[in-house]
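Re: Re: ligand-bound prediction request (bumping)

Still looking for help on this. To restate: I need the protein modeled with flavin mononucleotide bound, output as structure tokens. Inputs repeated here so nobody has to scroll up.
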Amino acid sequence: MSAPFQTAFPIMLAPMAGVTDMPFRALCREMGCDMAYTEMVSASGLYNKNAKTKLLLETHPQGEPCGAQLFGGDPAVMAYAAAWIENECAGRFTLIDINMGCPAHKITRGGEGGALMKNPALAGAIVGRVADAVKLPVTVKIRAGWDKGGVNAVSFARVMQESGAAAVCVHGRTAVQQYCGKADWGVIGEVKAALTIPVWGNGDIFTAKDALMMRARTGIDGVLVARGALGNPFLFREIKAARDGKSVAPPAIRERVHVALRHAAMMQDYKGARGMIEMRKHIAWYMRGCKGCAILRGKLQAVRAYGELEELLLGYLADSAR
Ligand SMILES: Cc1cc2nc3c(=O)[nH]c(=O)nc-3n(C[C@H](O)[C@H](O)[C@H](O)COP(=O)(O)O)c2cc1C
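Reply:
Sorry for the wait, this slipped through. Here it is.
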């Protein structure tokens, strides 16, 4: 079996559209992340041979432990897409994950993503067809339920297990909650207690202590970290150290800046000018909470090339050392 199934308590980078591209995954891996997910990939985009969709499935030339995340609502199209990934990207992915949590209206209005929480029979059929179509492990990322009155994670996760899922990740919020309020770790613990396959927890892990606390409270087999890693790939080494009974100090500003610049250089190499535009949001996350970050954020809007960013950030570092 592959990376997250071999590691005791894997620490993973959750799928994030617009964020978990190859450069960011590489940095998180360097910091100790055991496996990262792609951004969510449209199964119908693969079915229709959309070139932009295929780009989302590029992986590091030297290989990386990576889960390919698919979204869609048609079992046959999902099975086609999973088999396409297994055949065309041979050996590059660790698992196929199915998105059953995305709350975006453009996804849920077609019955896909989080809307599948309202339709366990269809969700089970999707998992069954996909698991039959590939040899790779098939995992499912679910929510606590569709809405407050429809919290069904335990029965839903049982259906996923019976349909052939190799693991389930539970984000302890309903789809209607989107990212608001606190994640309910109680429901994650209930799913863990009900299943025999690995259950991974997700929601509100912003520090190493949070990860250990979620593990202690729920008994989960691994964690997925999303927003806590934005501008903070260092969180993976902090959680990894804590998992191994050690501790590491958070990064000093100098390291933050140098890692941010390395991230930017990778984005420029990988995506060209578009990468530098995308990098603006990452830099704002890296510098969050630093002295003068509001002014820096303003200046970032004018940055178009790596050299300009380097000048801005190294200038910031020199000023902050004075
Ligand atoms: C910018 C952003 C993009 C996301 N994209 C996806 C996605 O493509 N697929 C998915 O399953 N979840 C996606 N999520 C949800 C996260 O994977 C995660 O479940 C959620 O943010 C809760 O974890 P956290 O509290 O650690 O942020 C996204 C979240 C954010 C903030």
